[in-house]
Design a protein that fits this description.
- This protein is of the alpha/beta class and 307 residues long.
- The chain has 2 domains: 8-222, Spore Coat Polysaccharide Biosynthesis Protein SpsA, Chain A; 238-303, no CATH class.
- 35% of the residues lie in helices and 23% in strands.
- Strands 1, 2, 3, 4, 5, 6, 7, 10, 11 and 12 form a 10-stranded mixed sheet that branches.
- The radius of gyration is 19 Å and the shape is globular.
- The mean pLDDT is 93.
Length: 307
């Protein structure tokens, strides 16, 4: 680990259940890392369920950044990350507020940055309610048809037979990032609001030459979709269905020089649309919203105007 490391900034975006956010913060207060080297940037994105400074009694340095409206996940992250850079943090942890981390998180992850070109490290993430089962330990992005998947999702942590490190295309929910990545490629694209913004940002990072790895240690427990889906499952709500459908078209147009547009459209129409509507949606309203997002995505692809 680099001896010059002074500070880690932890960005947590609050939206939804306060108890989830507070449990996330409590896990951070137990980290086996010098507390004076940690700053938590708690971005309050929920006008209906505000957090007050009086509620933050943990032994952590917490900077509460209250927003007037919900900026979406990307917008919330950017508020915290900009402040972390201003405070000269060496590393920035992007952590979903429905994730609980184990105390040895930084002790286990920081040494990986000694490897060449490592810019982003994530731990294995397991289900909060079933910590013996993997939620994510590798994000695969199919660049021909533009779809993503987690190859080891729902496998036992004991039966997966994983190597110590897995090179990955993208990560989510718990990402430890060298601050230099933000300085070189900028911030998350706020047009996405929720969903796919992490894939797009990681794509830019890897395109710039940074490596993203998963260290296959189960150090984060995820409640899964607590704020933007159906809690504890990988099913989509109407809101998340809309953005899942729409946002890959934004990606497609903005990075069209990196893909075959024809195969990418096939992927959205004949792979993602039937998969999500058949296996990730349980309501007519969510199916309707997925189709609406798909149509609006097409409009953006053709006109460059985001509705």
């Amino acid at each position: 680990m680099n001896e010059k490391i002074e500070t880690i900034g932890i960005v947590v975006v609050h939206f939804g259940n306060k108890e989830d956010t507070f449990e996330c913060l409590r896990s951070l207060s137990l980290l086996s890392y010098e507390k004076q080297r940690l700053i938590v940037y708690l971005v309050d994105n929920d006008p209906q369920n505000r957090i007050s400074t009086k509620e933050l009694s943990l032994k952590l340095l917490i900077k509460l950044l209250t927003q007037k409206k919900n900026l979406g996940y990307g917008g919330g992250v950017n508020i915290g990350a900009r402040q972390a850079l201003k405070d000269r943090c060496d590393y920035i942890l992007l952590l979903n507020n429905d994730v609980v981390v184990k105390k040895e998180l930084f002790k286990r992850l920081l040494p990986y940055f000694n490897k060449k070109n490592i810019g982003i490290v994530s731990p294995m993430i397991v289900y909060y309610d079933n910590p013996q089962v993997i939620w994510c330990t590798h994000g695969y992005f199919n660049k021909k048809f533009l779809f993503t998947r987690y190859p080891f999702m729902n496998k036992s942590i004991y039966a997966a037979s994983l190597p110590d490190v897995i090179e990955s295309d993208f990560g989510a929910a718990c990402l430890l990032i060298d601050a230099e990545v933000f300085r070189k490629i900028g911030f998350l694209d706020e047009r996405y609001f929720i969903n796919v913004e992490d894939v797009e940002w990681c794509f830019r990072a890897k395109k710039t030459g940074f490596r993203l790895i998963y260290a296959t240690h189960p150090l984060a427990l995820h409640k899964v979709s607590a704020n933007a889906g159906i809690k504890g499952t990988n099913l989509l709500t109407p809101l998340s269905a809309y953005f899942y459908a729409r946002n890959f078209f934004i990606f497609m147009r903005d990075h069209k020089d990196s893909f075959n547009l024809f195969t990418a459209i096939i992927g959205q129409t004949f792979i993602r649309l039937p998969f999500y509507t058949l296996f990730r949606i349980r309501s007519f309203q969510a199916i309707r919203e997925y189709i609406r997002g798909y149509i609006y995505g097409w409009l953006y692809l053709l006109t460059g105007k985001l509705l």
